[in-house]
Amino acid sequence: QASSGTFRIGALNSITGSGSSYGVGMQKIIIAMAERINALGGAGGRKLEVFAEDDQTKPEAGVLAAKKLLDVNKVGAILGTFSSGVTLAVMPLTDAADAILMNTSGAPSISERNTKGFSWRFEATNDRYGRAFAQAAKNNGFERPATMAFNNASGLSNTQGFKEAWEAAGGKVVQSVVYEPNRPSYRSEVQKIIEAKPDVVVMGSYLQDTTIILREWYQSGYDLRWIMPNWAGNEALIKALGKDVCEGVLTVGTISNEGSPALEDFNTLYQKLTGNPGSTNSYASMCYDMVVVLALAMEAAGPNASSVEINAKIPEVAGADGTVVHSFEEGREKLKSGKISYQGASSKLNFDKRGDASPDFSINIIKNGVIERQSRVQV
Amino acid sequence: MLLQVSSLTAGYGGADIIKGISIEVRQGEIVTIAGTNGAGKSTLSKSIVGLVPKVSGSILLNGRDLLKVSPENRSALGLGYVPQVSNVFGSLNVLDNLKVVRNVKDKPRKIQEMIALFPPLGAKLKLPAQTLSGGERQMLAVARALMSDPTLVILDEPTAALSPSLVEQVFRLVARLPEQGVAVLMVEQRARQALSISHRGYILDQGSVVLSGTSEGLLSDSRMAQLYLGRH
Amino acid sequence: MTFISLLNYSLNGLVEGLLIALPALALTLVMGVARFANAATGDYMTVSAYGAVAAQKAIAASASAAMLGALAIGIAVSVLAGWLVFRLLRGRPFVTSLVASIGVALLTRSVLTYFVGHDPQTIEIPLMRAWNYWGIRILPTDIAVAAIALLAMALVFGILYLTPLGREMRAVADNPDLARASGIRANRVWITLWVIVGVLCAFGGVLYGAKAVVVPELGWELLIPAFAAMVAGGVGNPVGAVLAGVLLGVIQELSVPFVGPSYKIAMSFLVLLIVLLFRPRGLFGVSVSTR
Amino acid sequence: MESYLIAIGTVALIYALLAIGLNLQYGFIGMVNFGHVAFFAIGAYTSALLSIEGVPIFIGMLAGAVLAALSALPLSMLSARLSDDYLAIVTLGFSETIRIVIQEENWLTGGIQGLPGIPSLFSSMSFGPTGLMTLIAISACVACVYYAIRHLTRSPYGRLIQAIRDNEAAVQSLGKNTSWLKIQVFMLGAALAGIAGGFYAHFMSYLSAEQFVPLVTFYVWVAVIIGGVGRMSGAMIGSLLLIAFLEGSRFARDILPGVAEVEMASVRLGLIGLALILCTIYFPDGIMGKKRT
Amino acid sequence: MLALNHIHKSFGGFHVLDDVSIHIPPGGLVGVAGTNGAGKSTMFAVACGQIAPGAGTVHFLGEDITQLPPRKRAMKGLGRTFQIPKEFGSLTVLENLLVASPRATGESLYSVYFHPRAIRREERQIRERAEEVLEFLNLAHVAGKLAAGLSGGQKKLLELGRALLLSPSCILLDEPFAGVNPVLIEQLSERILQLNKERNIAFMIIEHHLEALRTLSNDLYIMDQGRVIAHGDPSAVLDNPAVQEAYMGGIV
Ligand SMILES: Nc1ncnc2c1ncn2[C@@H]1O[C@H](COP(=O)(O)OP(=O)(O)OP(=O)(O)O)[C@@H](O)[C@H]1O
Ligand SMILES: Nc1ncnc2c1ncn2[C@@H]1O[C@H](COP(=O)(O)OP(=O)(O)OP(=O)(O)O)[C@@H](O)[C@H]1O
Ligand SMILES: [Mg+2]
Ligand SMILES: [Mg+2]
C-alpha cells in the first residue's frame, strides 16, 4: 500500500463541531511533527505524507473521511481521532484495512473492541479519570459532592466513573445533573445543583460550557468549589473568566510528562503554531507523541515495512521497558542497540496489552490565576 | 394623446399572449376594452402598469416611454390601477390599504373623500381587508387607485362581483372622472353598460384588437354584439 | 420544590426567552415580509458577536464598543446577503429561499472561521453578584439583557406599526405586485427589512455572546428554538413571537426540576404541540375565511 | 478508490431514499416535514437492535420501515389540523424529541455511548466484497422504490394528491378524503425514510444520537430542492449532487494548494454554501427543471 | 332537499348571518341576490361546512348535517363553487376536471398497483366527460395549460366546470358569472337549465346579474345585512320596492 518513498498517514481531527477547540491544534501539531520528521530524513527511510481531514466531531463524517483516507489516499495510519463516537465508528474500517489507529478518546469500550490490536489510545480512559476525581475530592476533604456532566460519552463516563469510585468508598453523591450542549445559559442547571447544597461539584465538561457555568455560579453568589478535567480548567478558562471566578478550582489531568524534554519541546512548538500555551490543549501533546511513536515504530520496522509490521513494533518503542528516550532523534540512535521506551510529552505512554496508555494524574489548584500542582496520583 | 400603446407584444414566458396591439386614450376620455375570456385584456392592462415579464413595443404616457420607467415609478407619473384579482392588501386593514398608497398630496382629506364615495368602507376601517366581502373589496380597490389623483386609471373589471346598485354607482363615478381630469381605461364584461358611458371602445380576441371605434358605433354593430357583447 | 425556587427557575426562563425572542422576531419579520424562514439568522448573530469581540479588542473593552462592533457587522452582513442573494429570489417558493439561506449561513460561517478560527472567545462584561431578595436571585446583567432586548423589540414594533415605512413593509409582504403598482419602492422596503434584521441579530448576538461564549456555532444552535417561538406565536406576528419566546423559555426552565435538563427541550415542543392543537395557527394567529 | 466510491455511492443512495420520501410528502401533497430524520432514526435503530438480537437483517429493516410509518401516524393525523409552517415545527420537535429519547434511554439504545457492532449486510456471506454487495442491494431497492413511486405519482392518485397541495379546501369540497390521503402519503414517506435508516445502520455499523440531528433533515431538503421539487428524477439527482458536493469538496484541497489544512474545513463549508446559493438562484425549478409549462 | 334553518353567525360581534332560513326543494332553482357583504358567501360556507354556524341547523335530504365536515357533505351530493376561484394551479386544466370527477378505483393506493386495468378504463370514461365539459366552457384550447396561467374569467369557468362534473344532487354556485363574457353567460344559463331538467339537479345560485337570475331561478331570496329581506317568485321579488331600495338603489 505504501509506495517506497513515503508512508502516508491521515490526520483525522475534529476541525469543526464541538471538538473543534482542540482539533485544530491537534491537526497543526501532527502536520508540523511530520514535517520535522521529514526534515530529519524521514523514518525507516521513508518520508511521512500527511492527509488531513475533518471529522466534524461526528461519526458519520468521520467514517466517510476515514474511508477516503484509507481508500483514496491509501494511508497506513490514522492519527488523532478525538470523540469516542468517531473512534468507535472508524475502528472497524482501520481494522479491515490493517491500518493503525491512534486516538485520544476516553470511552472504556474502545479497549474491549480493540481485538486486532491496531488501536492505540493516548488518553486515560474515562473511568480512570473518574477515580482521579474521587481522589481529588477525598484529598481536599469534601463530603457532599455533586456532579455535572456535559451530555456526551466523555462527560457522562467521567462523572459516572467518579460516582462509582466515590460510592465504592462509602460516600454519597448529593445531586447529578446532565446538561445539553450549546445553551445560552445553564442557570437552572446550576440552581438545581445548588439546591442540593453540595460542597463541591465534579464536572465532566468542556471549556466552552464550563465558562458559562462558572460565570452563572459566580454571579449567583453561592459558596462552592469545583473539580474539573484540565481540558476545561486551564489557562483559557482563567483568561475568559478572570482569576476571581477561578480561585480555588481544582483541575485533574493526566500528567503531561513534565520535566521531560518532549513536553518542553511540545510547548514551544505549540506556542509557535497557535499562539497559545501548550497546556491549553493536552490532546495536542498526545498528537505530538503519536507522530513520534509512529515514526519510531517505522524506524524499528525498517525500510518498506507494512503497516502491520509497523504496528507490531509500537510496543517495542513505547512500551514499559527499554532504554528511555525523549525524542525521535534520540530514539533513532538508541534503537540500534535494542528496545527503547519513548516517554512522550503527554505521558510516559507505556502502552498496555489493550493498547491503552496509562498516564498518571495530577491534581491542581488554581490560585490567584495560576495553576499549581497540588498532588500527583496514580489510579 | 395621454396614453399611446403601439404594436405592443407581451406574454409570460411562453407564447405571446398579446400580439401587436395598438390602442390610445386621450385626455379626459373613457375607453372600454371588452372581449372574450382569455383574450388578453388583463395582460394588456398589466403590461401598461408594468407587471408582465415579457413586453415589447412602446407605451407612451404623456409622451414618456413607460417601458423605461420602473413599475413603482409609474404611479408617480399619474397611473392608477385596479387589478382584476387580489386587488387589496388582505392583511392590512382598510385604512392602511388607503394610507399605504404613495404619491398622494393631502392624505387625510383624500381618505375622507374616498369614504364618502364608498360609505360601506367607513364602517370597516379597522378590519383586515381579507375579511371584506367580494364587493367591498372591489370598492376598496377602486378607492385605493383613486387615492393618488391619477391622470389615467386602469380598471380591470371594476364591477365584477358588485351588486346592481353599486355597479350603477361605479359607472356613475367613472363617468364623472373625466371632469376631475382623470382619464379611464376600463376592462369590462358588462360591455354594454360600460360602452354607454365611454367615448370609445376596443374589442379584443386572442391577443389582437378585432374591432374598435366609438361607443355608438360598437353598440350598433349587431354582428359584433352577437359575438362579444351579449344581449344585455 | 419551594415556591421561591420555582420563581427562580421562571426568572431564568424569562431571560432565556427574551434572548430567543430577538432572533425569533427577526425570523418572523422576514417570514412576514419576504415569506421564508431565514436560516441565516443565527449566523448573523454569530458574526455580530464576533464583531463585538473584535471591537472590544480594537477600541475598548466596554459594552458600547461591543454593541457598536456588533451593529456594524450585523447590519452589513444582513444587508449584503439580502441584496446579493435574497433580492434575486423574491417571489420564489418558501423552501427555495430557505435553502438559499442555509447556503448563506454556511458561507457566512465559513468566511468567519477562515479568518478567526474556532477558538471560543468572550465578550467582556463586568461580573456582578446577584441581588438576593428572600432567596429570589436577580442578576443585574440579566436586567440589562432584558432591558436591551425589550428596547430592541419596542423599536421594531414602532417601525412596523407606527411608521409609513412599516405599513409599506406589510404591503409588500402581502402583495408585491399591487405594492409596486401603488408606487411603493420594494427595494427600499427590503433594505429596511434587512437593516432591522441586522439590528435584531446584532443585539441578539451581543447579549447571547456576553451571557455564553462566542463560538462559530453560537447562532446556528439558536435557530430551532427561535423557529419554535416564531411558529408558536403565529407566523409573521411579531408580538406573538416575543410572547411565545418568553413562554417557551419559562416552560423550559420550569421543567428542569421535574424532567431534567435533557428532556426540557422536548418539553417545550410538547407545549408547542398542545398550543397548536387548540390554536392551529399559533397563539396569536388569525384564521382566514373561506369564500 | 473503488471502495471509497462504493461508500459514497451507498450514502448517496441512502439520501436518495430519504429524498424520494420527502419529495412525496412535500413535492406532491405539500406537507412540510422538518422532522424527516426522526423516521430515519427509528428505522435505523429498530433494524440495528433487532439484528443485534439475531433477527435476520431483512426482517429487521422491514420492521424499521413499519415502525417508522406507525410513528408517523399520529403526526399525520395532527396535520389534518395544521398547515405548512405549523406542521413544520411539530415535525421538527418530534425529531428532536426522538433524538433526545435515543440519547437518554440507555437501556434500549446504548444512549450517549452509541450502539456499536451492528452487523453489516451480507457480512455472513462468504463470497463477494460486502461493500459492493450492499451497494447493489441498495441500488436495487432504490430502483424499485423509484419506479413504484413514479407509477403512483402518475396515476389518478398522484394527480389527486397534487391537487391537495394546490388547494386542500377545494379538494375537500369535491368530496375527497384529504386527511386520509395525507396520512397515507406521510406514512409512506416515513416508511421510505425507515428503510433508508435500515440501510444506514448496517452500512455504518455504529449508531449514536448525534447522527440524527436536524441537519440531516436539512440536507434532504437541500437534495429535494436542488433536484427539483415534485420531480421524481429531481430527488435522485439532488441526492447524488448533494453527496458529490459534501464529499467532493474534500478534494478541493488538491486544487487549492495555498490553503492550510485547518482552513480547508472553512473553505469546504463555504463551497457548499456557495453552491446552494448559486443553485437556487440559477436553477429556479431545480436542476431537473420544471415539469411542464 | 337542502334547508338552512335559522342560521346565525357572527365574527367578533359583527352579525354576518342573522336568522337566515333558506330552503331548496328537490330539483329547485333557487337564486340568491343581495347587497355586497350581505352574508351570501358566508351562508354558502355554512351550508357546505367550511364555517360552523353560531346557531341553527343545516338539513340535507332530510338529514341533519350541521356537524358534518365539508367532505362528507360533498359525498352526500352537495357540490359548490367558490366566489374566488380555487383552481389547482400546478395541474393542467384538463387534470383539474379529472380530479373533480368522482371515481371508484383510481384514488386508492391499493388499486393503483393492483388494478391498473380498471383504472385505465375508468380514466377513459372520465376523460370523455371532462373533455366534453371543456368544450362547452370554451376552455378546450387551454386544456393542456397549467391552471395557474388562466385568465380571471377562465378560472371562474374552470371552477364551474368542476362542479358540473361532480354529478351531485345539489350544486351551490357562488357568482358563477362574475367576469364571464356575456355571450357565454347565456350559453351557461341554458346548460344549467338543461342539467336541472334532465338530471334533476337542484341549484342555488348567488348572482348579481339580474337578467340571469330571472331566467335561472324559480325562487329568489334577497339578502341584506345578514337577513333575508324578501323571498318568492323572482319577478315579484325584484319588483318589490323594498328590494329595489336596498339592493338596486332604485334603478332596475
Ligand atoms: N372572518 C371574518 N371576520 C370579520 N368579518 C367577516 C369575516 N368573514 C366575513 N366577514 C364579513 O361578513 C360579511 C359578509 O361577507 P360575505 O362574503 O358572506 O358577503 P357576500 O354577501 O358574499 O358579499 P359579496 O356579494 O360582496 O360577495 C362581510 O361584511 C365581511 O366583512
Ligand atoms: N400568469 C400567467 N401565466 C401564463 N399565462 C397567463 C398568465 N395570465 C394569463 N395568462 C394567459 O394569457 C391569456 C390572456 O389572459 P388575460 O388574463 O389577459 O385574459 P383576459 O382577457 O383578462 O380574460 P378574462 O376576461 O377572463 O379576465 C389567457 O389565455 C391566459 O391563459
Ligand atoms: Mg382579465
Ligand atoms: Mg360573496
Automatic annotation (TrEMBL), chain B:
Matching CDD domains: ABC_TM1139_LivF_branched (cd03224)
UniProt key word Nucleotidyltransferase: no
Limits of the ABC transporter domain: 3-231
Gene Ontology biological process terms from the UniProt entry: L-amino acid transport
Molecular function in Gene Ontology: ATP binding; ATP hydrolysis activity; branched-chain amino acid transmembrane transporter activity
UniProt cross-references to Pfam families, sorted A to Z: ABC_tran (PF00005)
Keywords tagged on the record: Amino-acid transport, ATP-binding, Cell membrane, Membrane, Nucleotide-binding, Transport
Protein family (similarity comment): Belongs to the ABC transporter superfamily.
Name of the protein: Amino acid/amide ABC transporter ATP-binding protein 2 (HAAT family)
Provenance organism: Paracandidimonas soli
TrEMBL record, chain C:
GO BP terms in the entry: D-alanine transmembrane transport; L-alanine transport; L-isoleucine import across plasma membrane
Glycoprotein among keywords: no
GO MF terms held by the record: L-isoleucine transmembrane transporter activity; L-leucine transmembrane transporter activity; L-phenylalanine transmembrane transporter activity; L-valine transmembrane transporter activity
Annotated organism of origin: Paracandidimonas soli
UniProt protein name: Amino acid/amide ABC transporter membrane protein 1 (HAAT family)
Ranges annotated as spanning the membrane: 63-86, 98-117, 137-162, 189-210, 222-251, 263-280
Family annotation (CDD domains): TM_PBP1_LivH_like
Family statement: Belongs to the binding-protein-dependent transport system permease family. LivHM subfamily.
Main location: membrane
The keyword Lipoprotein belongs to this UniProt entry's keyword annotation: no
Pfam families in the record: BPD_transp_2 (PF02653)
This protein's UniProt keywords: Amino-acid transport, Cell inner membrane, Cell membrane, Membrane, Transmembrane, Transmembrane helix, Transport
TrEMBL record, chain D:
Superkingdom: Bacteria
Keywords for this protein: Cell membrane, Membrane, Transmembrane, Transmembrane helix
Annotated TM spans: 6-24, 31-52, 58-78, 122-149, 185-206, 218-246, 267-284
The keyword NAD appears for this protein: no
GO cellular component, one term: plasma membrane
Membrane topology: Multi-pass membrane protein
Molecular function GO terms recorded: branched-chain amino acid transmembrane transporter activity
Family annotation (InterPro entries): ABC_transp_permease (IPR001851), LivM-like (IPR043428)
Compartmental location: Cell membrane
Name recorded for this polypeptide: Amino acid/amide ABC transporter membrane protein 2 (HAAT family)
From TrEMBL, chain E:
Domain ABC transporter: 2-250
SMART domains, alphabetized: AAA
Keyword annotations: ATP-binding, Cell membrane, Membrane, Nucleotide-binding, Transport
Keyword Nucleotide-binding: yes
PROSITE patterns: ABC_TRANSPORTER_1, ABC_TRANSPORTER_2
Nucleotide-binding in keyword set: yes
Molecular-function annotations in GO: ATP binding; ATP hydrolysis activity
Gene Ontology cellular-component annotations: plasma membrane
Gene3D superfamilies assigned: P-loop containing nucleotide triphosphate hydrolases
UniProt-listed InterPro entries: AAA+_ATPase (IPR003593), ABC_AA/LPS_Transport (IPR051120), ABC_transporter-like_ATP-bd (IPR003439), ABC_transporter-like_CS (IPR017871), BCA_ABC_TP_C (IPR032823), P-loop_NTPase (IPR027417)
Protein name per UniProt: Amino acid/amide ABC transporter ATP-binding protein 1 (HAAT family)
